Structures are given as structure tokens and as C-alpha cells.
Amino acid sequence: MFSKKFSIFIIGLYYIPQLIPSRKVSNTNGHDCVAKDFGQDSTVCVCNASYCDTIPLIEKLNSSMYVKITTNKDGLRFHKEIGIVEVIENKASYSDIVINVNASVEYQAIHGYGGAFTDATGINLASLDGKVAEQIMKSYFGIEGIGFSLCRVPIAATDFSTRPYTYLENEDPELTSFSLQEEDYQYKIPYILQALNLTNNNLKLISSPWIAPLWMKTIASYAGSGTIKEEYHPTATWAKYLLKFLEEYEKQGIDYWGITTGNEPSLALYPDAIQSTPTVAWTSADMQKFIKDHLGPTIENSSYSTINLIALDDQRGYLPDLNEILNDSAVNNYIDGIGIHWYQDWYESANLLDEVHNRYPNKFLLGTEACSGSTVIDLIFNTRVLLGSWQRAEDQAKDIIEDMNHWVTGWISWNMVLNTDGGPSYTSNFVDAHIIANITANEFYKQPAFYTHGHFSKLVPPNSKRIQMILQANNNESDVVSTAFKKPDGGIVITVLNSSDKTLDINIIDEDLRIIETVTPNSLSTILYWKD
Ligand SMILES: *[C@@H]1O[C@H](CO)[C@@H](O)[C@H](O)[C@H]1NC(C)=O
Ligand SMILES: *[C@@H]1O[C@H](CO)[C@@H](O)[C@H](O)[C@H]1NC(C)=O
Ligand SMILES: *[C@@H]1O[C@H](CO)[C@@H](O)[C@H](O)[C@H]1NC(C)=O
Ligand SMILES: *[C@@H]1O[C@H](CO)[C@@H](O)[C@H](O)[C@H]1NC(C)=O
Ligand SMILES: *[C@@H]1O[C@H](CO)[C@@H](O)[C@H](O)[C@H]1NC(C)=O
Ligand SMILES: *[C@@H]1O[C@H](CO)[C@@H](O)[C@H](O)[C@H]1NC(C)=O
Ligand SMILES: *[C@@H]1O[C@H](CO)[C@@H](O)[C@H](O)[C@H]1NC(C)=O
Ligand SMILES: *[C@@H]1O[C@H](CO)[C@@H](O)[C@H](O)[C@H]1NC(C)=O
Ligand SMILES: *[C@@H]1O[C@H](CO)[C@@H](O)[C@H](O)[C@H]1NC(C)=O
């Protein structure tokens, strides 16, 4: 069982021999996953009012130890093992994969990872017993949860609401009758406040608009190609409406770290007849004007002038258009970051991220939305929710790693909690989520993707920096991708995704430290060590 690794380990022996057999001792500390197989390629963890698995405590170790966390197709969930670091002289590589780490080369700082407080999320939480809902909140935000730190909040309705609504249904250009709705009071505010409490206020929030009042729009439809009427441009009515949202939430004790220019304006490119998701359409030229003449000045001239204004909030493929908008210096001055969605990442190159970063290095990139189960294929085959899908967890982990290696500073998934249909959604746009609530059984299922996202949200806290890592595959192994970070406490974090079905040895070399590990088939492994 130890064979090869054991003997390699002996060569560079630095540690007292008696401890060697404990190299692979499992030490989860946390509550174990109660696994359930729904016939997919992996399993979910079942939680109810009285039981839920927890994330193990990960404490700083001295420089002769490391910890490895594994989540895999085989059923391990945040499985914790402690290992012993070898100190080497000879850096010759002999394993399948060699990862050379140079922590003195730093790249982008991490803003955080999280999900979205949609109406659907709150409705599902409110439909479960209080105790069960609390287990979900703790799973995301509690000390034994996955450490979500950056979440998104829709401004009024999205397709994951039970009705389309805005804060100002009747024509009122002065915005005097602006009022938050029942959904805010019942399904968003209480859970956001609970999350702030659970995280000791270490939770950043960004807001995004989907839907505009019909009287402000050029067509009488929430979805489709309609935009804000010309007559409301001089008064910056739409920008002031968004500002009102920030004011009303502040009155509820909720402050925003960021606001986006609007969710997926590209939806409006599709024919009105097939559109159901509410949106405000913007061409590049109109968006440029809106930021420069309305949103930018309105926010700058308010008490929210330090909020991060995040452009795009749409698919990666539109980054070249944004490059042009940002070349306008007035727009450039107002914009702090760029939001990207993952839905077209399978065919849009990550080089687009590098291009925008290289041209505008002081604008941060942030993944503002992602979920599985939303493709046309999923619609046709009704595979919106797949309970226990490892493939989906792997797809998401791969995307996070790719984004991180191309300057992205965080990754926010879509609905935090959906029901077993993947809703509710008034447009029947059902999709998958990290947590699926079975309301009748008063229990919920944590998908594999909950844990793989957790490898980042829990193990790579805000203000971590990505560092240099060069992966060398000696055996042609192309199914392994990796990224590395340095945490604020000095810990080095190496995350390795193995999408192949073989077991490989990896050799992590960081100056004169060497870690030899095995990555199991179809796994996400995170290795942490502290050099001082
Ligand atoms: C909750 O889950 C635990 C662990 O699976 C189980 O022992 C217990 O019976 C469940 N409670 C209810 C009310 O289903
Ligand atoms: C590191 O920690 C381990 C476990 O706590 C301990 O046994 C060992 O002596 C420590 N090594 C050093 C060099 O401090
Ligand atoms: C790490 O990077 C720094 C800065 O580029 C360089 O000076 C140093 O030689 C590198 N260390 C190793 C071990 O390659
Ligand atoms: C969280 O709520 C508890 C109980 O109401 C309160 O004592 C505590 O101060 C709150 N913590 C924060 C950070 O708001
Ligand atoms: C800035 O705000 C003040 C007071 O709210 C207002 O009087 C002024 O017109 C605003 N200026 C601009 C450029 O919007
Ligand atoms: C960006 O703007 C500058 C100054 O107006 C202009 O010279 C340059 O051609 C623009 N670059 C692109 C790629 O549009
Ligand atoms: C939800 O729970 C109910 C009641 O226990 C059960 O009949 C149903 O199969 C469950 N649904 C799923 C998707 O597990
Ligand atoms: C590398 O991959 C190619 C193509 O899949 C294969 O023909 C070759 O034998 C592989 N080489 C090794 C060393 O595995
Ligand atoms: C990846 O998984 C495959 C099989 O699942 C395994 O053979 C291979 O060794 C793993 N690679 C790594 C780097 O662990």
C-alpha cells in the first residue's frame, strides 16, 4: 500500500520514523456525509433538521506537515488527510505530474466566492422547517460550512421568482412610490441578514438588475429587446432607480460592495418571441452612454460613490465589445470591475480574459453567475437537476481553475437553493443548484458541486493571491489542471483537478520542499502547507 511513496519518502526523511504510518491517517473531524445515490455518476449528501455533514476544521500546521483535502466521484467529500513534507536537495522529477510552485511570483488578489440570494433560494428556505433552513445557511456561511464570502442579490425579480415585478409598477418618473416588495422582506433580507450574522459581517454583496418597470421601457414586455425609453435618459431615471435600491437596502442594514450594469443584456439579441428572462437591452454604444452619462455620475454623486461598479455581467464572448467601451476614458474612470458568466466558456477562449486584463490591468474580473442544467440539451432531455452529478461538479471546478489562471478574482454560482424541479421559476427556466431542497421530505441534498466550489470558497479566503505554478505532465496526462494561491496567513494552496480515470502521482516542488501525493481518479484535491 505504501510501496513506492513510502520508499521515496524515506530518501528525504526529515521526520521521525514512528510517525510515518500516520501519513495517511484520515482525520475529518467534521460530521460525515450521509450519502444517497440517485442513479447519477456520484452521490449527494443528505441533511435534515437534526443532521448535516460539516467541513472539517483546517488549522495551520508547522512547516513539516501538510494537509490534503479531497472531494471525488467515489464519494469522498472534503476528506482531510495530514501528510509529512520532505525536504529535498535533488529536484529531479520522477512522478507523473510535477507542479513547480514559486510563491514569490504573485498575480491577482481574490475577492471571494459565493452564490445568489434569489427569490427562489429564499422561497425554498422559507418552505422548509426553520431548523432545516438553518442547516442550509450554516452549510454556506457557518464556521463549519464552505465559507461563502461574496454573494449576488438581484434587484427585484429574475426568472427565479414566482412573478415578474419591479419596485415601481406605476408610472412615476420622480420615483417617489418606489417600494421594496414582499419578496425582499420575506425571501431576501432575512436570509442576507442571517448570512451576515453567521459570517461576522465578512460577506460582500453585489447587486444586479434584471427587470425594469414597463413604463420605462421601449416595449411593453419585461423580456426581449426593450430598453429604457429615450425620454428617461436626461433625468437618469433608471440609474436613480438602481440607487434607490441601494438606499432601501441600507435602511434594512444591508450594504453593497458592488453593483453591476445589468444582468445579461445579450439576452435581448434573441428574437422577442423566444425570450422569457427579464432583461434591459443595451447595445455597446448605448451601454457606453448609460455608464458615462447616467449610472456613473449618479453613483459618483451619491453616498455610494465607493461602491464597485461592475460592467458586462454577461458571457465571456462579449469581452471584446467591453474592451471598446472601456477605451472611453470617462467610462473607464467609473468602472471598477468586469462581471463574466460561464455559460459559453466551453467555446469562448480564456484568452479573452487575458486580453482584457492586459489592456486594463486595474479592472478586476469576477465570475458573477454560473449553474449547470441550463443548456438546450438539458431542456430537451429534462436533465435540469441531476442529483449526485460528478460531471457537473468537475465542469464547474475546471471552469473555476481556468478562470483563476486567467486573472479572475472570484466565482459566484447562481441560485443557492432550488427545489427538486430546479425552481421555482415563473418562466419555467429550471436549472441545477449546489443545494436541492426536498420540501415534502423536509430535507436537502448537497450536490458534489457544493463541495468542489467549497474547495475554493473555504480554502482560498478573500485577499489570497494567486501565485506561480507550473504544471508539467510527464506521462502525457492532459486531464489534470491546477492552480495555486498564497493565503493571507501565508499558507500555500495547490488545487488539482483530475478529470481522468487513472490514478496519478503528483510531485509538488516549492523551493526545497517536496510533497508527493496521489490524486485519485476524478477528484479535486487541495493541498495546503505553511512554510513558516
Ligand atoms: C435525519 O438524518 C439522520 C442521519 O441520516 C437520521 O438518523 C435521522 O433519522 C433523520 N431525521 C429525520 C427526522 O429524518
Ligand atoms: C510539527 O507538528 C507535529 C504535529 O503536531 C509535531 O509532532 C512535530 O514535532 C512538529 N514539527 C516541528 C518541526 O515543529
Ligand atoms: C521565483 O521567482 C523569482 C521572481 O521571478 C525568481 O527570482 C526566483 O529565482 C524564482 N525561484 C525559483 C525557485 O525559480
Ligand atoms: C448575530 O446574532 C447574535 C444573536 O442575535 C448576536 O448576539 C450577534 O451579535 C450577531 N452577530 C453579528 C456579527 O451581527
Ligand atoms: C448631485 O447631487 C446633488 C444633491 O443630491 C444634486 O443637487 C446635483 O444636481 C447632483 N449633480 C449631478 C451631476 O447629478
Ligand atoms: C483607444 O483610444 C485611443 C485614444 O482615443 C485610440 O488612439 C485608440 O486607437 C483606441 N484603441 C482602440 C483599440 O480602440
Ligand atoms: C422527496 O421526498 C419525498 C417524500 O419523502 C419522496 O417521495 C421523493 O421521492 C423525494 N424526491 C426526491 C427527488 O428525492
Ligand atoms: C501520449 O499521447 C499520445 C496520443 O494520445 C499517445 O499516442 C502516446 O502513446 C502517449 N505517450 C505516452 C508516453 O503516454
Ligand atoms: C486521475 O485519476 C485517474 C483515474 O481516476 C488516476 O489514474 C490518475 O492517477 C489521477 N491523476 C492524478 C494526478 O491523480
TrEMBL record:
EC class name: hydrolase
Annotated metabolic or biological route of this protein: Lipid metabolism; sphingolipid metabolism; Sphingolipid metabolism
InterPro entries given in the database record: GH, GH30_C, Glyco_hydro_30, Glyco_hydro_30_TIM-barrel
Record-annotated Glycosyl hydrolase family 30 TIM-barrel domain positions: 110-459
Enzyme Commission code: 3.2.1.45
All copies of domain Glycosyl hydrolase family 30 beta sandwich, residue ranges: 464-526
GO biological process, one term: autophagy
UniProt catalytic activity: a beta-D-glucosylceramide + H2O = an N-acyl-sphingoid base + D-glucose; an N-acyl-1-beta-D-glucosyl-15-methylhexadecasphing-4-enine + H2O = an N-acyl-15-methylhexadecasphing-4-enine + D-glucose; a beta-D-glucosyl-(1<->1')-N-acylsphing-4-enine + H2O = an N-acylsphing-4-enine + D-glucose
GO CC terms: lysosome; vacuolar membrane
Gene3D superfamilies xrefs: Glycosidases
GO molecular function, a single term: glucosylceramidase activity
Lineage: superkingdom: Eukaryota
Keywords, ordered alphabetically: Glycosidase, Hydrolase, Lipid metabolism, Signal, Sphingolipid metabolism
Family affiliation: Belongs to the glycosyl hydrolase 30 family.
PANTHER family, A to Z: GLUCOSYLCERAMIDASE (PTHR11069), LYSOSOMAL ACID GLUCOSYLCERAMIDASE (PTHR11069:SF23)
Full protein name: Glucosylceramidase
Origin species: Sitophilus oryzae
Lineage: Eukaryota, Metazoa, Ecdysozoa, Arthropoda, Hexapoda
Gene it is expressed from: LOC115889467
